[in-house]
C-alpha cells in the first residue's frame, strides 16, 4: 500500500517571518504535501461583539494566507491556546498532521535561521516534525532546492528516507553531510528520544541555529512521505 503524502500545517499570523513559512510550505506542497493553515489566538474577549470581531479578523488573516498561496480552498484553523506551540501541537495530533511549518524568530537577520519560541517548544518533545524557514525567503523568487542534506543517528533511517523522497519529487540530490552548504536539511532526533517524539542532540541544535537553509526536524523513527 502506498503511504499517504505528508500533511503540513503552516503557522501563519501575517508577519514577514510567517510569510517565510508560507514559502517553505509552498515548497513542501510542490513535493506533494497536503497543506493547511493555522492561527493561534491566545484569549477570548468576554464581550460578544469584540469576540466576534477578533474571530473574524483571525479568519480573514488565514483567508489572506491561503490566497497568497493560490489555494483559496486550503483548510484553515483558528486555534485558542495560551501557547502557540502547545496549540499547534494539539491541532496537529487532532488533525493527523505530520509536520508544522514555522518562520524564524522575528528578529532573525535575513538569510539566517533561528527557531522562535513556539518552534523551539515543539523541538523539545513535540509529537510531529518541525520545519523552519530562514528569514527573508518569501522575498525571493522561490526556494531552489538542488541538494538535500540528511543528518541521522544510528538506527534511524527516517532522515535519509525522507530526504530521498523529497529529492525525487523536487529533482534534487541527497548528500550526507552535517553542514549547511545544502539547500534543505532533514535532521533526525537523538537516539534517546521517545519514538515519535522530537528531541535533538546538541550538535544538531547547533546545525539548526547556524543554518542558512530550511530545516526539517523529524521525530525519532519517523519517515515523511511525499
Count helical runs: 6
What count of structural domains? Answer: 1
CATH level 3 topology: Rossmann fold
What is the residue-averaged pLDDT? 92
Task: Please name the CATH architecture.
Answer: 3-Layer(aba) Sandwich
Q: How would you write the strand order of the largest sheet?
A: 3-2-1-4-5-9-8-6-7
Strand elements, count? 9
Which term fits the overall shape?
A: globular
Q: Percent of residues in beta strands? A: 15-25%
**Low-confidence parts lasting 5 or more residues at pLDDT below 50?**
none
Biggest pleated-sheet summary: 9 strands, mixed
Radius of gyration: 17 Å
Q: Which structural class do the helices and strands define? A: alpha/beta
The CATH class label is: Alpha Beta
How widely separated are the two ends? 14 Å
Q: State the share of residues found in helices, binned by percent.
A: 25-40%
Order of helices and strands: EHEHEHEHEEHEEHE
Amino acid at each position: 500500500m502506498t503511504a499517504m503524502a505528508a500533511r503540513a500545517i503552516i503557522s501563519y499570523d501575517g508577519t514577514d517571518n510567517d510569510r517565510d513559512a508560507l514559502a517553505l510550505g509552498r515548497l513542501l506542497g510542490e513535493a506533494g504535501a497536503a497543506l493547511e493553515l493555522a492561527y493561534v489566538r491566545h484569549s477570548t474577549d468576554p464581550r460578544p461583539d469584540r469576540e466576534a470581531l477578533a474571530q473574524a479578523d483571525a479568519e480573514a488573516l488565514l483567508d489572506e494566507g491561503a490566497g497568497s498561496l493560490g489555494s483559496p480552498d486550503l483548510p484553515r484553523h483558528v486555534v485558542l491556546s495560551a501557547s502557540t506551540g502547545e496549540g499547534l501541537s494539539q491541532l496537529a495530533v487532532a488533525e493527523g498532521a505530520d509536520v508544522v511549518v514555522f518562520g524564524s524568530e522575528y528578529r532573525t537577520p535575513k538569510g539566517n535561521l533561528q527557531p522562535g519560541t513556539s518552534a523551539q517548544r515543539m523541538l523539545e518533545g513535540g509529537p510531529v516534525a518541525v520545519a523552519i524557514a530562514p528569514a527573508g525567503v518569501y522575498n525571493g523568487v522561490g526556494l531552489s532546492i538542488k541538494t538535500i542534506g540528511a543528518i541521522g543517528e544510528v538506527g534511524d533511517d527516517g532522515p535519509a528516507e525522507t530526504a530521498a523522497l523529497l529529492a525525487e519529487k523536487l529533482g534534487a540530490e541527497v548528500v550526507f553531510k552535517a553542514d549547511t552548504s545544502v539547500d534543505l536539511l532533514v535532521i533526525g532526533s537523538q537516539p534517546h528520544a521517545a519514538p515519535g517524539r522530537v528531541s535533538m542532540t546538541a550538535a544538531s541544535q547547533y546545525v539548526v541555529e547556524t543554518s542558512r537553509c530550511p530545516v526539517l526536524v523529524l521525530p525519532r523513527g519517523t519517515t515523511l512521505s511525499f
